[in-house]
Design a protein that fits this description.
The protein has about 425 residues and is of the alpha/beta class. The protein folds into two domains: about 5-295, UDP-N-acetylmuramoyl-L-alanine:D-glutamate ligase (3-Layer(aba) Sandwich), CATH 3.40.1190.10; about 300-420, Protein-Tyrosine Phosphatase, Chain A (Alpha-Beta Complex). About 40% of the residues lie in helices and about 15% in strands. Helix 3 (about 50-60) packs parallel to helix 6, helix 4 (about 75-90) packs across helix 11 (about 280-290) and helix 5 (about 120-130) packs across helix 6 (about 140-155).
């Protein structure tokens, strides 16, 4: 078994003194590099050449690591965190790379649940920024390169690597994993990935590699067919997680976690068959302590009991559909929804799924990509959703708390960034 590692035993560059401090570095990154989660498609670069060039500068650290590569429309983050938690319980030094972050950039790069130290972020940027500026990378490309660099630096035993968008042309897709995982395929980012589920599925399937096992979560038959046809001639063993009935329960409360735990469980069994020392107890403990082990947030996260306040990052049609099922099963007198969305989503389809009887608090997250609150209110009104607009997410949230009784429910959602500002 791999040796259990604590944060204190991770290599650190705490004595590193750069020309910029951490706050300088983060401001530089946010201002100098185009960020998809802030500005949208303008920051999306459908090409792997920048990532390849960045990794060449770093000496290709990604080649020295083992991976689980995770793609999918929904469930990537939860599935990735579940697997990371189990591998930590099994004693492996486990890297976890996810996006976007909620509060701190360093959430994107973790080892055994601990964020990359500020000193290492500073070291990476001050050491390599002059070289990468000739490449003009996106924020995501830079962050993936930093993740490879850090995970190799601390000698991770295994890395759970979540794609950012799509798969085929995603910056993460320069690695060969131990196992590939596609959690599901549904409608999102159609302007970039395709206007049919089949086209979106083909983009997600781009992470599939010859001779590498593939785990598929729950998905529609036509989507499953596209992905399985993609594997023809590639000698890929395909494992279907939706038929798995032996996965342990998880502490994650969202209804949609039912399939995520199955997907994670099957992927972990594949890793076990490939020589990783993972037993049933590791899986049970990892699933039950995923929040403690990985600091996962924003998935049916209960912030208060009286009134019941829940924050959830669901933001597309499939995610909102499952979220509303769970909301309907809660007991409350009135439902208050603090809603902020981004300007490149299929608003009409999402808004049709929201309950007309709720009281809405429309707001805009503090990012350029956020949809103005008044425009959101007008679009919601067309679907019979009534409420007021607010100057900020915080104002909307505070107003909802003032108006709610102890027997009411407040739901915060619509985008990752709305949830982030409340958390």
């Amino acid at each position: 078994m791999a040796q259990r590692i604590t944060l204190e035993r991770l290599p650190s560059s705490a004595n590193f003194v750069g020309i910029m401090n951490y706050e300088d570095v983060i401001e530089y990154l946010f201002q100098a590099l185009p960020m998809f989660h802030r500005v949208g498609p303008a920051a999306y670069k459908p090409d792997l050449s920048n990532t390849v060039a960045l990794c060449n500068i770093l000496g290709n650290p990604q080649r020295e690591l083992k991976y689980v590569h995770v793609a999918g429309t929904n469930g990537k983050g939860s599935t990735s965190h579940l697997m990371a938690s189990v591998l930590q319980e099994a004693g492996y030094r486990t890297g976890l790379c996810t996006s976007p972050h909620l509060i701190d950039f360093r959430e994107r790069i973790k080892v055994n649940g601990h964020m990359i130290p500020k000193e290492d972020v500073v070291e990476f940027v001050t050491t390599y920024k002059d070289q990468w500026e000739t490449i003009a990378p996106s924020f995501f490309e830079m962050s993936i390169a930093m993740a490879f660099w850090y995970f190799q630096k601390v000698k991770c035993d295994i890395v759970i690597l979540e794609t950012g968008l799509g798969g085929r042309l995603d910056s993460t897709n320069i690695i060969t994993p131990e196992v590939a995982v596609i959690t599901n395929v549904s409608w999102d980012h159609m302007n970039l990935l395709g206007d049919t589920l089949e086209k979106i599925a083909t983009e997600k399937a781009g992470i599939i590699k010859k001779d590498i096992p593939l785990v598929l979560g729950e998905m529609l038959p036509n989507v499953r067919s596209v992905i399985t046809e993609y594997t023809l001639g590639m000698n890929v063993n395909v494992f279907h997680a939706e038929i798995e009935d032996d996965a342990p329960q998880t502490e994650l409360a969202g209804y949609y976690q039912e399939q995520n735990r199955r997907t994670a469980y099957v992927a972990l069994k594949v890793l076990s068959n490939k020589g990783f020392n993972i037993n049933r107890n590791h899986i049970e403990q990892g699933f039950q302590h995923v929040v403690r082990n990985t600091s996962l947030q924003g998935r049916w996260q209960q912030l208060s009991e009286h009134p019941l306040i829940v924050a959830d990052v669901a933001h597309n049609t499939d995610g909102i559909h499952h979220l509303m099922k769970q909301v309907q099963d809660q007991k409350y007198d009135r439902l208050h929804i603090v809603l902020g969305m981004v300007n490149d989503k299929d608003l009409t389809t999402v808004l049709k799924l929201l309950p007309k009887e709720a009281i809405y608090y429309f707001c805009k997250a503090n990012i350029p990509r956020g949809l103005p609150a008044e425009e959101l209110r007008e679009r919601a009104l067309q679907q019979g959703l009534l409420g007021k607009t607010y100057n900020s997410v915080r104002d909307a949230f505070e107003s909802a708390k003032e108006e709610a009784s102890e027997k009411d429910m407040i739901l915060v959602g619509g985008s990752v960034f709305t949830v982030a500002e409340v958390l």
